[in-house]
C-alpha cells in the first residue's frame, strides 16, 4: 500500500511512487485469468515471435491496472471519478515497473474538493509505458 | 462461450479479490468484507479498471472489433473510465455499446494505422449509469510499432 492521504489535505505537487520489480510472464497469465484478455500475444511465445516480437509482452490494461493503484490507494478506490491512460511503450518480462503520480490541480466543484493527478508508468530503462490522469473527489455510500 | 443468465456483467466479491491480487493491489476495500461494511459499503469495492473483466460475461468474448482485424497487429492505444459511483460486489451491470468510430493515420514507419474508438456505458439494475469506459484500439496494418 502507498501512503494514504485525506482529500482535504491534498496540495499541488504532492507525489506518490512505487515499483514492482521483475515483472514476469506468470504475472501476465494471472492477469489474463483475472481480467479476461486472452490475446495469445501476451502468453504464447510462438505467436509473439510469429508477429515479429522478441517475446510476449504485458497487456496494456495490466500496467494500467497497477498504475491505477496510485490514485486508488492514495485517496481510496471509492473516490476516483476518472482514470484515463495512453499507452506509449510495451512492458516486457523482466522489467521493473515504476508507477508515480503528482497532484497537478486542487479545485472546488459544487463545494466538493476535486484533485487532478498526473500519472506515469515507467520501465527501469526510463521508458514511459503509460501517460495518464486521474480525478479524485470524495464519494460517500448512501 | 456459453451465455450467462440473467444477462449482464455481475460484479463479484471473489472476482474482485482475484482481479486486485493480479495487480498486487492490497487495498482492504477490495478484500475485506467486514471492513467494507463498517465503512458503509454493502460489499467490497471493485478496483478502478475492474470493468475490463466484463469481457468474461459477453457472449462475443468482449472483442468488439470490426471484421478482418488481425490480432497480431493490434495495439491498445488508450483507455478511460469515468465513474458516477464505484462498482460494488453484488451489482449487476448492463453494458450498452456506443458507436464504433474509426479513422486512419499514416504510421511513423510507413503503412496506415487504423484507429478504432469505442464507448461502453454500464448501468445498474435501477437504470443508473455507473461507469463509462472508452477504449482506443490501433491496427498497424502489419507494421507493429512501439
Description:
The complex is a heterodimer of chains A (142) and B (146). Chain A has a domain at 11-23 and 57-136: Hotdog Thioesterase (Thiol Ester Dehydrase, Chain A), CATH 3.10.129. In chain A, 23% of the residues lie in helices and 33% in strands. Chain A contains 4 helices and 5 strands, in the order E-H-H-H-H-E-E-E-E. Chain A has a 5-stranded antiparallel β-sheet. Chain A is elongated, with a radius of gyration of 17 Å. The model of chain A has no long low-confidence stretch (mean pLDDT 96). Chain B has helices at residues 13-22, 28-31, 33-38; strands at 9-10, 74-83, 92-97, 101-106, 112-123, 129-139. In chain B, a hairpin with a 5-residue loop joins strand 4 and strand 5. The longest helix of chain B has 10 residues, at 13-22. Chain B is elongated. The relative contact order of chain B is 0.20. Strand 2 of chain A pairs antiparallel with strand 2 (74-83) of chain B, so a sheet runs across the interface.
In summary, what is this structure?
The complex is a heterodimer of chains A (142) and B (146). With 142 residues, chain A is of the alpha+beta class. Chain A is built from 4 helices and 5 strands, in the order βααααββββ.
**Average residue-wise pLDDT of chain A:** 96
The low-confidence runs of chain B, each spanning 5 or more residues with pLDDT under 50, are none
The coarse silhouette of chain B is elongated
Q: How large is the radius of gyration of chain B?
A: 18 Å
Q: Write down the domain tally of chain B.
A: 1
> How many strands, what sense, and barrel or not for the largest sheet of chain A?
5 strands, antiparallel
Q: What is the averaged pLDDT score of chain B?
A: 88
Query: Alpha-carbon distance between the termini of chain B?
Result: 33 Å
Shape designation of chain A: elongated
Low-confidence stretches of chain A: none
Largest sheet of chain B: 6 strands, antiparallel
CATH superfamily of the domain at 11-23 and 57-136 in chain A: Hotdog Thioesterase
Strand content of chain B: 25-35%
Assigned CATH class of the domain at 11-23 and 57-136 in chain A: Alpha Beta
Which architecture of the domain at 11-23 and 57-136 in chain A would the CATH scheme give at its second level? Roll
- What is the CATH C level class of chain B, in words? Alpha Beta
Tally of DSSP β-strands of chain B? 6
Query: What is the string of helix and strand elements of chain A?
Result: EHHHHEEEE
SS-derived structural category of chain B: alpha+beta
Order of helices and strands of chain B: EHHHEEEEE
CATH architecture of chain B: Roll
